[in-house]
Amino acid sequence: MLPALRLLVGLLIAALVIAALYFGRELLIPLALALLLGFLLDPAVSRLKRWGLPRLAGTLGVVAITLCALAGMGAYLGNQVSDLSAGLPTYQSTISAKLRNLRQLTTGPSVWDGARKTYDTVEKEIDSPPGARAGARVQKVEVQPVELKPLAQFTAWLGKISEPVIMAGIVLLFLVLVLLDRDDLRDRLLRLMGGNLHLATDALNEASERIGRYLRMQFIVNLSYGVPMAAGLWFIGVPGAILWGVVAAIMRFVPYVGPLVSAVFPLALAFAVDPGWNMFLGTLALILVLELISNNVVEPWLYGASTGLSTLSIILAATFWTALWGPVGLILSTPLTVCLLVLGRYLPALRFMEVLLGNSPVLGAPQRLYQRLLAGDVEEAIELCTDGVDAALPAKPTPGQVAEAVGRLYDEILIPTLRMASSHHTGSATAGHRLRLSHGMGELLGEMAEQYPPPLPETAASRRGRVHCIGARWEVDALAAQAMAHALGLDGLAATHSPHALSARMEALEDSDWAGVDLLCLSVFTPQPQTQVRQICRRLRRRWPQLRIVLALWNAPAALLAEDGFAPLGVQAVTTSMRELRLRVGALLAPQPAGGHPLAPMGEEDEARVAALHASGWLDATRTDALHDAVVQAANAFHVPFAQVSLVDADWVHTPGSLLASASGPSVGRPGLPRELSVCAYVVSEAADLQVEDIARDPRFADNPLLQAAALRFYAGVPLRDRQGQVLGSFCIMDTAPRSLSVEELDLLHDMARRLQNTLSHRTEVSPPPGAGPTAQPPAQETGPLLGPAMA
């Protein structure tokens, strides 16, 4: 009863809001137009204020210039219309001749003549009055209009123009008030949206950014349409070409209807002017070509995701606002709907607005894949996965890039889908659901292996050991094992998998021959796998004592992963993701380095990169203050204890201004650490972002002594590039607890890195430090404990 009552109250509130919008349109339409114009003119007013002009003077100046521009354009267009009106009588003969030709074409004999005559006869019989004689004449009555006196004519004319003039005056008044009291209006809107200033500020900023970007892009799109239209009509010879180009640009502000209306005028004029059909056909071809280019090239390129609205929601919004407010509602439909979308994104009570109006997927990729498999739509499921991999690959990908893209897809989509399937196995899922899921997932994995084949097994086996993947008990375990074997095969390993999982009695163990297997990867989706894993591992150890086991616990709680209860069973590693599995297996089969931990890699063109670093001037001591300011800002913004700028040299990583103490290395007094132990060296060698959510679970860094000494558990770094695009170092943040960055936070880290790059490059070009060579090192600093925390 409560959900039904809540729905009824929501419908009642919606009806009241719609009624208020309809009956209050006399006041709301001018206010909405003023706010829309305020979005357009406020940047100019703010710019004048920054130049020192008072806001009142800037507002009046911008409004006056806008009114003068509109008046001038109106006068010019009126003059063009007057010239065209004076010349229209000369085209009457051409129009009459063309209409006679068209009438002859349409009145000729056709197969429908008999049906048309019969219909006309029946219609006359129906329309004739009862008792009328055949052939009787009907007397026509003509109503003569009453001729008004001059005063009455003036009053009628004034009544017609008073409404738009009053509307324009109210809009102008609201516009001036909005531009003058922008800050006060914003504060009042923040207060109305609730006490959470963070959400309210983000909502207003996003609405302003989306609407402003939409209006700017709309202006550019309309200009890119109107200018070629005017030029093309002038070349064709249509009179008033500039007038029709301006009309076409203005009418495109009206969604859907505007382009059709603007096309009628030049087509009609081309029909009237040219005795032949060349001008008309040329004008029609010009309009069609411009529409195709604008709709399919210019608009997708410029708009992108500027509004965030779906195509269906834009059409529905245009219909809704037109029904409420008429033609003005059609013009305002997109900005008003954007406001509703933003409110739905930030206000929980209006969350359904984002679902109904937005163009972003309402289901995550795992949910979409799960639904497609439940529905038996295997083709769409395959397309979803292959499109995701292809979108992450360049035009000519390397085998390593393919392996990384497929592994990321398995981590982000396929494993979460199997996790949902395991949680719904005995709940809402029926036997048909489970059958369609297993059958579709098997086809999907087979298609993935065909489209992204691993290297030849014999080639891989000659370089690395043999790996076998198997599921622990359920079918989802076996499906995940098949994905594991594919991902490991793409890494160059001789990886195989068993098509079926181990049963509860584990008869398969007695029939298997795993004497040549170097690593056995066991896939487990059970939330509490301790008993099951212990039983399987003991049986394995009794028959194959030399077998090394890697557990893939996809559903285990974090507390179980922190324990070391699987070590006595001969388990070499416990992984929770496909990426961690690939790294762990690769580390177990690779030759162990002398120091016990992997060394940071070097790029193929590292010598040229190091030379660019020394020539950049970024290593000069005068840069330390700017670098220190940047890392302090990053630490405060991301709420982390440590941030760092790392400039990667040939064998040393310089960290001037870092919030971590220096490492005492071969060159005493240099702040930094050896390159072979640096995480930032991975960012430089791969020229890509690096985010390590938990350092203790990453085999590349888990045994790094410097990271262990500093107790670091999280790292996120982005490349620092010079003006030629050469990666000279990284800008990173670090924490002592595992965490992850959202897409917005990673974009912010990139933005801070770009600002730092611009600062360093600008200082290098404008004011190079006198007497300081390009390889000048920072002055000697007192070093603390090995990478120990030292807050600046």
UniProtKB/TrEMBL annotation:
Disordered, as annotated region: 762-792
Pfam families assigned: AI-2E_transport, GAF
Main location: membrane
Record's keyword annotation contains Transmembrane helix: yes
Protein name, entry field: AI-2E family transporter
Family note: Belongs to the autoinducer-2 exporter (AI-2E) (TC 2.A.86) family.
Localization of this protein: Membrane
Residues in GAF domain copies: 622-767
Lineage, broadest ranks: Bacteria, Pseudomonadati, Pseudomonadota, Betaproteobacteria, Burkholderiales
Annotated membrane topology: Multi-pass membrane protein
Keyword Transmembrane appears in the UniProt entry: yes
Transmembrane parts of this sequence: 57-78, 161-180, 219-247, 253-273, 280-298
Record's keyword terms, sorted: Membrane, Transmembrane, Transmembrane helix
